[in-house]
């Protein structure tokens, strides 16, 4: 049957009714169209991805081998005028962990990690407890220790690069240089004042990495890192050290609460040294107190006392009211103005103007002050920079207090002439004295080393007046003056003592601020040195006894350091040595 | 025609191999540059650390302490010093300094 049917089928092939059925044409066309459409769609998509929206696929691809790496930049160094390091950053590692992963460490591994990092094991256990996703194990770990840690190949323990700032000079320059926080940003001092230029800006680069994490190729634009710029201070670290050690000795000897010393270059206005006590170690800032942090020389004001007298005398000379040797009657050492009486520490008779400064007579100075109006005095104080910020750009510098002249009462004018009722910072008074050290002009101060000294400053007094005041200042350190202990062997120096009562709760207390501001060498002034000792409680309280010897020590050292030729013959030094005065 | 095609094919293969070698060598060199740059960074860091170490050893208080205590030096007084003007030719008199 099969055969028969086959035979028949073959036989009647052309007549098969199935084949004879005419297929509708649209069906085949539809299939063709659908297939073509699908192809067109694919081609379109392909075209879109390859030609139009190229970024998508490229991005997908690049994300598999391209990496952006941050290129870190270091913070600039702070160096002194001779290039000695005062602050420098060095790379450190911070060790951090993902607690969930880190808990897989065995007890032995944990013990070794704790030992390497020098943290108590229980402490580390605590940090890894809880369901945090991130925990610092220790920050600022030296690189060699960090390498040992990574050699342990601990699970969940990672490292991050960071910087640590070191201050080789330590507490000596602490107030000047300041310090940075953990994030390497300046918080105090020069670190803060020059944050903008010290700060480095990290760059970045895109690279292709291979399977093993090696960099194979640089692609795209490189954003170069910008290292912070070095800051070169005017500071001379040797003079700074001399100032620091002499001030420290003076504060210890007189059991004082605090002290400050400033050395200025009179020719350029550069700050060669600036020291405050008490100080702190910027490398280890645990247990810091506000008293240690205070940069007193810049941020604290005090009533200067007698160190103001030369300004009154200078104004009187300048206006031609008196001459160098005009005699003023200072007897009987007291003077009543209105309801108040001012007096001298030691009563004097008639004194010349020069002797008023030499012996520091309050009465004499007050009499000089009454030669002019409050306004004239105010203008002179203003011209030498009192009541204004010294414009060093230092954080927290103060302007002091100089009240408007319109409401000065006569007694106030009198006390102000010898430095009470007015408050200044040590840097202000040191700067004002540069007027006498120069030819009567005032130049701006500079924390940074200057390549060339500034041009002439603002003229305040005539060169003649400045010279006469220098002569008076020299008289003050002679045996008949108030500060024979401030002399420096081999050099002509001059200066003025100050012994001011401190104000406590609005009234003068029996506490003192002893100070000395001087100029050296007088034949060709180069330095202005100001020393302030706050609340000396032992070994006297007069400026000449307390601050004078420190001035002498600092000045002797600074003159020697700068290689300035002695301007006094040695015979004088010999006599001095026989008399036991002065500082070698 | 076939000869030209064969030659072109050989040239193509050779140049393709050349590209690959050049790329490989470029990467090798790049790695060397990277390694050297890394070394430069390391040396820079080390330089910083040595500088720091030097300035720590050379602080003025330490110098003074060693000079006074270990070397038993003392500061000359005004009579033991000769200061020569900075402008004078050095060692002209061999004077004490």
Short précis:
The complex is a heterodimer of chains A (584) and B (97). Chain A is α+β, with helices and mostly antiparallel strands.
3D structure, described in words:
The complex is a heterodimer of chains A (584) and B (97). Chain A folds into two domains: 69-99 and 133-146 and 156-232, Alpha-Beta Complex (Penicillin-binding protein 2a (Domain 2)); 237-579, Beta-lactamase (3-Layer(aba) Sandwich). In chain A, strands 2, 3, 4, 5 and 8 form a five-stranded mixed sheet that branches. In chain A, strand 18 and strand 19 form a beta hairpin. Chain A is an alpha+beta fold and 584 residues long. The longest helix of chain A is centred in the first third of the chain and has 28 residues, at 25-52. The model of chain A is unreliable at 580-584 (pLDDT under 50). In chain A, helix 16 packs across helix 21 and helix 17 (362-369) packs across helix 19. Helix content of chain A is 38%, strand content 21%. Chain B has 97 residues and is mostly helical. Chain B has one domain. Chain B has two helices and no strands. Chain B has helices at 2-57, 60-70. The chains are: A alpha+beta (584), B mainly alpha (97). Chain A binds chain B through residues 74, 84-85, 88-91, 143, 166, 168-170, 172, 214-218, 237-238, 241, 245, 489-490, 560, 563-566, 570, 573, 577, 584, and chain B through 26-27, 30-31, 34, 45, 48-49, 51-52, 55-56, 58-61, 64, 75, 77-79, 81, 83, 85-86.
């Amino acid at each position: 049957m099969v055969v028969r049917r086959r035979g028949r089928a073959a036989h009647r092939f052309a007549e098969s009714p199935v084949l004879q059925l005419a297929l509708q044409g649209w069906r085949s066309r539809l299939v063709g169209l659908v297939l073509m459409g699908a192809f067109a769609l694919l081609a379109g998509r392909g075209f879109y991805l390859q030609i139009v929206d190229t970024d998508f696929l490229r991005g997908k691809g690049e994300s598999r081998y391209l990496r952006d790496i941050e290129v870190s930049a270091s913070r600039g160094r702070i160096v002194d005028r001779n290039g000695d390091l005062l602050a420098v950053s060095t790379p450190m590692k911070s060790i951090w962990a993902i607690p969930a992963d880190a808990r897989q460490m065995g007890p032995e591994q944990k013990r070794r990690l704790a030992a390497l990092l020098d943290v108590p094991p229980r402490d580390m256990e605590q940090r890894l407890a809880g369901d945090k996703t991130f925990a610092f194990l220790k920050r600022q770990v030296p690189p060699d220790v960090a390498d040992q840690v990574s050699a342990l190949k601990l699970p969940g323990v990672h490292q991050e690069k960071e910087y640590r700032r070191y201050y080789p000079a330590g507490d000596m320059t602490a107030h000047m240089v300041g310090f940075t926080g953990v994030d390497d940003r300046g918080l105090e001092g020069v670190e803060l004042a020059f944050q903008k230029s010290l700060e480095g800006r990290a760059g970045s680069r895109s690279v292709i990495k291979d399977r093993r994490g090696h960099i194979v190729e640089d692609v795209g634009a490189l954003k170069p890192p910008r290292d912070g710029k070095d800051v070169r201070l005017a500071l001379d670290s040797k003079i700074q050290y001399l100032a620091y050690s002499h001030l420290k000795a003076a504060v210890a000897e007189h059991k004082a609460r605090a002290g400050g010393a400033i050395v200025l270059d009179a020719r350029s206005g550069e700050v060669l040294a600036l020291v405050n006590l008490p100080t702190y170690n910027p490398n280890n800032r645990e247990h810091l107190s506000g008293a240690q942090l205070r940069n007193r020389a810049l941020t604290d004001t005090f009533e200067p006392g007698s160190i103001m007298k030369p300004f009154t005398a200078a104004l009187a000379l300048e206006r031609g009211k008196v001459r160098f040797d005009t005699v003023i009657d200072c007897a009987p050492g007291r003077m009543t103005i209105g309801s108040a009486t001012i007096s001298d520490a030691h009563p004097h008779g008639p004194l010349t103007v020069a002797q008023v400064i030499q012996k520091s007579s309050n009465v004499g100075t007050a009499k000089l002050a009454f030669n002019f109006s409050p306004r004239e005095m105010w203008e002179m104080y203003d011209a030498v920079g009192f009541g204004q910020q010294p414009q060093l750009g230092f954080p927290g510098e103060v302007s002091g207090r100089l009240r408007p002249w319109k409401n000065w009462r006569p007694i106030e004018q009198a006390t102000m002439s010898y430095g009470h009722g007015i408050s200044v910072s040590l840097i202000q008074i040191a700067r004002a004295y540069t007027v006498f050290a120069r030819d009567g002009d005032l130049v701006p101060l500079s924390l940074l080393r200057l390549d060339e000294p500034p041009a002439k400053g603002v003229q305040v007094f005539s060169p003649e007046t400045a010279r006469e005041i220098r002569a008076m200042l020299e008289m003050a350190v002679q045996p008949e003056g108030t500060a024979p202990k401030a002399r420096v062997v081999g050099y002509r120096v001059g200066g003025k003592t100050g012994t001011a009562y401190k104000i406590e709760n609005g009234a003068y207390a029996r506490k003192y601020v002893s100070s000395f501001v001087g100029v050296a060498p007088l034949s060709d002034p180069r330095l202005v040195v100001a020393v302030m000792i706050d609340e000396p409680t032992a070994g006297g309280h007069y400026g000449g006894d307390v601050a004078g010897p420190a001035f002498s020590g600092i000045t002797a050292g600074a003159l020697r350091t700068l290689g300035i030729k002695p301007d006094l013959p040695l015979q004088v030094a010999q006599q001095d040595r026989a008399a036991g005065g002065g500082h070698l | 025609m076939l000869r030209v095609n064969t030659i072109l094919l050989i040239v193509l293969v050779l140049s393709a191999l050349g590209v690959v070698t050049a790329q490989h060598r470029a990467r090798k060199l790049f790695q060397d540059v990277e390694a050297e740059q890394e070394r430069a960074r390391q040396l820079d860091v080390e330089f910083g650390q040595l500088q720091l170490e030097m300035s720590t050893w050379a602080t003025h208080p330490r110098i003074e302490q060693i000079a006074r205590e270990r070397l038993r030096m003392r500061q000359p007084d005004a009579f033991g010093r000769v200061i020569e003007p900075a402008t004078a030719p050095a060692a002209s008199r061999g004077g004490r300094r």
